[in-house]
Amino acid sequence: MIFKQLFEPVSSTYTYLLGCPETGQAVLIDPVVNSIDRDLRVLQELGLRLAYTLDTHIHADHITSARELKQRTGSRIAAPAIDRLDCVDVGIEEGPPLEVGSIGVRGLHTPGHTDGHFAFVAGERVFTGDALLIDGCGRTDFQNGDADTLYRSVTGKLFSLPGETLVYPAHDYAGRHVSSIAQERARNPRLGGGRTLEEFRQIMGSLNLPYPRFIDYAVPGNRSCGECPADLPQELQKYCGQMAQSPQG
Questions:
Q1: CATH number at residue 212
Q2: Where's the Metallo-beta-lactamase domain (predicted)?
Q3: Is 245 among the domain residues?
Q4: Can you tell me the distance from the alpha carbon of 102 to that of 210, in angstroms, rounded to the nearest whole number?
């Protein structure tokens, strides 16, 4: 499998490219709208054709490029079926994997950060979105998030994967690139080391995080598979910089 980890610095988002060397088909997991040109360039350099975009959840901190990439490349939009988005071509559920050439991408419903959140397993890698971060996890105080549910998703599903499974999160804010299930199971300060549900509740309840600065624009934009609003304040224009050059059709 051809694999690339790509980083978008405005929202500190990792996008993952998985390519099949036999068929030349590829999937982008959690693509970001301001990085369309980069992603298309990488696909071209590797001689790959984008078959699918695949989002782990409805993001609150960036706009997906799923819609724009579909318009440019003919790729299909895949996303969790539970969110019932009209713009999605393939609804992902637990069960049969999404097949991209010889690559199988298996969905795991991991709610708690959002109620529709999925992680994706491909070979020895798991793409955990915001459910499990390196030494952390996503917040649970918006988009129907719930600390108890996230605890069960991580400890019951993700931590049950083989310890050598490589963990690739949707974000990292400290320059880290990869972890493993064994490492997070042992030392994640929020969920690892045998943390109890009550301890996790207390940790998440005491975070006192600020209101997400882009959420009021990102969530409706992502419910349309990637539409940037026309009325963005000047200080938020950087989140949709690409769209100034590539307006939605």
A1: 3.60.15.10
A2: 12-171
A3: no
A4: 43
With contact defined as beta carbons under 8 Å apart, do 239 and 232 qualify?
Answer: yes
Query: Between the CA of residue 146 and those of 136, 149, 201, 202, 224, what are the distances in Å?
Result: 15, 5, 9, 13, 24
pLDDT one-digit tens code per residue, 165-199: 999 999 999 999 999 999 999 999 999 999 999 99
Dihedral sign for Cα 2, 105, 148, 14, please: positive
Using 70 as the pLDDT threshold, list the residues of the chain that sit under it: 242-249
H/E stretch holding 161 reads none
- pLDDT on residue 242: 59
Q: Mean pLDDT score of the chain, rounded to an integer?
A: 94
In a domain, 247, yes or no: no
List the domain range (segments joined by +) for residue 59: 2-228
Q: State how many domains the chain has.
A: 1
| Contact criterion met (CB below 8 Å) for 207 and 190 | no
- DSSP per residue over 208-223, as a string? -PPPPTTHHHHHHHHH
Q: Using CA atoms in the order 161, 185, 110, 65, what is the torsion angle rounded to 10 degrees?
A: -90
